[in-house]
């Protein structure tokens, strides 16, 4: 069961921050199909951290910037090694094949 908690942001206002509290089981059940697809595609849940990096890479690449320059900029910006940036680019540029059962 999902619980809801209200927390005051500032004591002198009526603003509330609403937190949803759920069990691990509930979170996994809610996202089961998405998690299956991610697993089947060979991706890791933490790959989401690099979505913005890859988006920026594509934008810069489309404007004609050289890959070596882009990688150096992104490595500095995201505080990861250039080798890791190359790995992310290669992984995210790859294709994912999914199969749906036909009935």
Describe the structure.
- The chain is mostly helical.
- It has a domain at 45-95.
- The chain has five helices and two strands.
- The chain has helices at residues 24-30, 32-40, 51-62, 67-78, 82-93, and strands spanning 3-8, 16-21.
- It has a two-stranded antiparallel sheet.
- Helix 3 (51-62) packs antiparallel against helix 4 (67-78) and helix 4 (67-78) packs across helix 5.
- The longest helix is centred in the middle third of the chain and has 12 residues, at 51-62.
- The mean pLDDT is 85.
Oligomer designation: single chain
Count of β-strands:
2
Rough outline: extended
- In terms of DSSP E residues, the strand content is 5-15%
Radius of gyration: 20 Å
Please identify the structural class as seen in this structure. Answer: mainly alpha
Q: How are the strands ordered across the major sheet?
A: 1-2
Protein topology:
Layout lengths: L2 E6 L7 E6 L2 H7 L1 H9 L10 H12 L4 H12 L3 H12 L10
Antiparallel strand pairs: 1-2
Helix pairs in contact: 3-4, 3-5, 4-5
């Amino acid at each position: 069961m999902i619980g809801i908690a209200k927390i005051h942001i500032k004591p002198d206002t009526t603003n509330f921050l609403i937190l949803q509290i759920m069990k691990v089981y509930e979170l996994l059940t809610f996202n089961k199909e998405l998690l299956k697809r991610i697993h089947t595609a060979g991706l890791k849940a933490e790959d989401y951290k690099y979505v913005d990096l890859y988006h920026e890479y594509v934008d810069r690449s489309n404007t004609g910037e050289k890959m070596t320059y882009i990688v150096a900029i992104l490595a500095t910006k995201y505080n990861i090694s250039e080798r890791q940036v190359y790995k992310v680019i290669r992984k995210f540029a790859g294709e994912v094949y999914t199969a749906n059962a036909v009935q």
